[in-house]
Amino acid sequence: MKPCIYDYTLEQLQEWMKENGEPVFRGGQLFDWLYVKRVKSFEDMSNLPKSLREKLDEHYSILTLNEITRFESKDGTVKFLFGLHDSHAIETVIMRHNYGNSICVTTQVGCRIGCTFCASTLGGLKRNLTAGEIVAQVVTAQQMLDATGERVSSIVIMGSGEPFENYDATMTFLRLMIHEKGLNIGQRHITVSTSGIVPSMYKFADENTQINLALSIHAPNDALRSKLMPVNRRFPFEDVMAACRHYIAKTGRRITFEYALIGGVNDRPEHAQELAEVLQGMLCHVNLIPVNHVPERNYVRTPREDIFEFQRVLERGKISVTIRREQGHDIAAACGQLRAKHMESTAR
Ligand code: SAH
C-alpha cells in the first residue's frame, strides 16, 4: 500500500520535493491543492508538471474514505460511517451550530479504555488510526460542506478512541489542521478530550499550542471513577488532577471537565458538592452530559430536574458549568453507537 499524502506536514512535503530535485515551492503548491482546493487526485493538480504529478501518484495515495452510510438528522447533524482500506469502519460527525460547523473525529478503531457507559469500547481496540486517516475525516467532511459553501470551523476529538494513546498521529493531525496555509482552523476552536492518560497530559502541556484540553472526569472521587472508568486504576484520580493543575499552570488555559450524568450512579447532589470541592480554585469549566443510552449498558438518564439541581450545586460552589446541548438523537449520533450497530449487522 502506498503511504497516504495526508500523513505529511508541509515541511516534509517540501523536503520530499527537494530530495526529488523539485523546487521547494512545489511543496506549498501541493499543500494548497490538498487543503485549500481539496482535490481528490494528483491528476487534478494542474499547476504541477505532469511528470511530478505522475511521480506523486506512484509514491502516494490521496486517501479517500469509503462512505458506507450517512445519516442526516433533522437538526442538520450528519453522521458518517466510513470504511477503511482494511475493512474496519469508523464514525465521524458534523454538528451544525449557529456559530459554525463542528466536526467530531475518531482517533482509533475501537478503544481499549473500557469506560462502562461507552459504546466505542465494546469490541476493544482494533488499531490506531494514522494521522492521514484522521485528517481525511475532516477533509471529507469539508468536501461535503463545500457544496453549500460552508466550512468546518471547529474540531472536537471526541469520536471513538483515546487520542492520548495515539499521541503522535493525533499531534500530526492537529498541526496539519491549524496550519495557516491549510484548513487554518483556529487553535482555540479545537478540543482534545482524554480519559486521563497522565504522561500524555504532561507532554501535551509542553506542546505550546492554544488547543483546548478536556478531561473526562465523570466522578468526583477515586473510588467511583475507578468503577466507571477502569483507566482510573492505571492513572489514579489524584494523579490525573495533578496533571490537570500542571496543564493549567503551564499553559494558562482552562480545562474543560466532562461529566456524564448517570441516573443514581454519579448524579446526586452529594456528588456535585464533592466535585465543587475538588475543582475549587481551578481555572476550569464543567460540561454536564446527560448519558446517552447504550443498549449494551443498562444505565438510565438523570431526570431533567436533577440535572439542573446538579448544576446549581456546582454554581453555588463557584464552578462554571453548562449542560451539553444534544444533537442528532434521531440518528444514533453519539459515541460509537453507529459503528456498534454496523458491526452487529455485519456479524449477522
Ligand atoms: N477517549 C476520550 C475521547 C472520546 S469520548 C475521552 O474519554 O475523553 C468523548 C466523550 O464522550 C468522553 O467524555 C466520554 O466519556 C463521553 N461518553 C462516552 N460514552 C458516553 C455516553 N454513553 N453518554 C455520554 N457521554 C459519553
UniProtKB/TrEMBL annotation:
Gene3D superfamilies in the cross-refs: 1.10.150.530, Aldolase class I
Localization annotation: Cytoplasm
Record: active site: 91, 335
Catalytic function, reaction form: adenosine(37) in tRNA + 2 reduced [2Fe-2S]-[ferredoxin] + 2 S-adenosyl-L-methionine = 2-methyladenosine(37) in tRNA + 5'-deoxyadenosine + L-methionine + 2 oxidized [2Fe-2S]-[ferredoxin] + S-adenosyl-L-homocysteine; adenosine(2503) in 23S rRNA + 2 reduced [2Fe-2S]-[ferredoxin] + 2 S-adenosyl-L-methionine = 2-methyladenosine(2503) in 23S rRNA + 5'-deoxyadenosine + L-methionine + 2 oxidized [2Fe-2S]-[ferredoxin] + S-adenosyl-L-homocysteine
Domain of life of the organism encoding this protein: Bacteria
Protein name listed in UniProt: Probable dual-specificity RNA methyltransferase RlmN
Gene: rlmN
Residue ranges annotated for the Radical SAM core domain, each copy included: 97-330
Note: Reaction proceeds by a ping-pong mechanism involving intermediate methylation of a conserved cysteine residue.
A biological process from GO: rRNA base methylation
HAMAP family on file: RNA_methyltr_RlmN
Keywords associated with the record: 4Fe-4S, Cytoplasm, Disulfide bond, Iron, Iron-sulfur, Metal-binding, Methyltransferase, rRNA processing, S-adenosyl-L-methionine, Transferase, tRNA processing
One GO cellular component term: cytoplasm
Cofactor: record remark: Binds 1 [4Fe-4S] cluster. The cluster is coordinated with 3 cysteines and an exchangeable S-adenosyl-L-methionine.
NCBIfam families, per the entry: rRNA_mod_RlmN (TIGR00048)
